[in-house]
Amino acid sequence: MSGEEAPAQQQTPEEQKQDAQQNEEAKQEQSKPAAEAPAEKEVEEEVFTYRSLVLSGYGGYDKVKLQVKKGMPSPKTGEVVVRVKACGLNFADLLGRQGLYDRLPSPPVTPGMECSGLVEAVGEDVTDRKVGDKVIVLSRSGMWQEVVAVAASHTFLMPEGMTFEEAAAIPVNYITAYMMLFDFGNLRPNQSVLIHMAAGGVGVAATQLCKTVKDVTIFGTSSASKHEAISAMGVTHPIDYRTRDYVDEIRKISPKGLDIVLDPLGGSDTHKAFNLLRPMGKLITYGAANVLTGQRKNLIALAKTWYNQFSINAMSLMHANKAVCGYNLGYLDSEFEMITDVVAKLLDLFKQGKIKPKVDSTWHFEQVGDAMRRMQERNNIGKVILLPEPKKEEPKTEEAKKEEVKKDEAKKEEN
């Protein structure tokens, strides 16, 4: 037989008593106020978000866009999470935007090699950092965002009295300048140094570091409008490269040549730099600024720089009694112990008051295009800094309010 045809079983008195009790409990449950009933839907948890600058593709200033990312980064073993307070803008970032810096991963990618901030979380096996520490951070990329997860070994404790803006100006520029002058250049008292782009981040750092050595003569190239500023910082002989031949100007003052030339330009300027060296002099090349002539990649400038690139054989070097060195901080990833040692020396010099980063200007993430333009057009004196925090809206003036009212009235009339 099917289930429907089966006879119903007769209940015992005990079973009838249990059923009556269950029915009574069900009625009481239904009579409870609706407020006591469990919520049908759980309240969704608020998702953590943070602001990040992202290079969406190669090209002009508009290719770096402000985005909002979701999810709090969590530290892996040996990592810390840092709440970023300030980020550094470097020439490599300008090259990376045009696809001319091979150490930056392909877009979409968050640029930025340095920042400063507060430790918010600590991963396993991290014993020398704690929540609340003020730190300087150096990494290959990814620093232009509000929160970053980085290896604890890539962070350095900020000294007392250092601002977050100054801290973000330290790593790339000062490490570069220090290693070129002292590790490669072996700078000593009474020597002479040529610093191109003397008003830039590396230029200011190199000038300050030269001043830590007795009686060093500093030649610095910059536009005439910056001469007063770079002279105040320690440049002995400022030269306007736009109106004068810097080689002739240097030869007039130092006929025998120079002990050290720092070359961030490349192309034909590297040839000039080598010829300016005196016997036992050192040329340290660390960039190719001559290829950066506009917002986007300039193939003519690239071809010209490549055609005029400097090359020399070992025999010629031996006969000239000169040295040529190449420096690129981006390729020292595997030598972080060396970099850590340099940073320790730099922070000690800061504590002694012998170096102090010069911050040219600060720009909120929304203004990154203007910040890059200022640096690329060589209008800065010192370091350009990016701030992750949102730009606060300034109170509108009465004139601005009246202007808005006029615009609204005009729109109404058009409608």
Describe the protein:
One of its GO terms (cellular component) is mitochondrial outer membrane. The protein has 415 residues and is of the alpha/beta class. The chain folds into 2 domains: 137 residues, Quinone Oxidoreductase, Chain A, domain 1 (Alpha-Beta Complex); 171 residues, NAD(P)-binding Rossmann-like Domain (Rossmann fold, 3-Layer(aba) Sandwich). 33% of the residues lie in helices and 22% in strands. It is built from 13 helices and 15 strands. Strands 3, 4, 5, 6, 7, 14 and 15 form a 7-stranded mixed beta sheet that branches. The protein has a 6-stranded parallel beta sheet with strand order 10-9-8-11-12-13, sandwiched between helices. Strands 1-2 form a two-stranded antiparallel ribbon. Helix 4 crosses helix 5. The longest helix has 18 residues. It is globular, with a radius of gyration of 32 Å. The chain starts with 12 loop residues before the first helix and ends with a helix.
- Helix content bin: 25-40%
Low-confidence stretches: 1-10, 34-41
Structural class: alpha/beta
* Assembly classification: single chain
End-to-end CA span: 81 Å
The number of helical runs is 13
Tell me the name of the CATH class of the largest domain. Answer: Alpha Beta
InterPro entries: ADH-like_N, ER, GroES-like_sf, NAD(P)-bd_dom_sf, Quin_OxRdtase/zeta-crystal_CS, SV-ATPase_mito-regulator
GO biological process, one term: negative regulation of mitochondrial fusion
Keywords: Oxidoreductase
GO molecular function: oxidoreductase activity; zinc ion binding
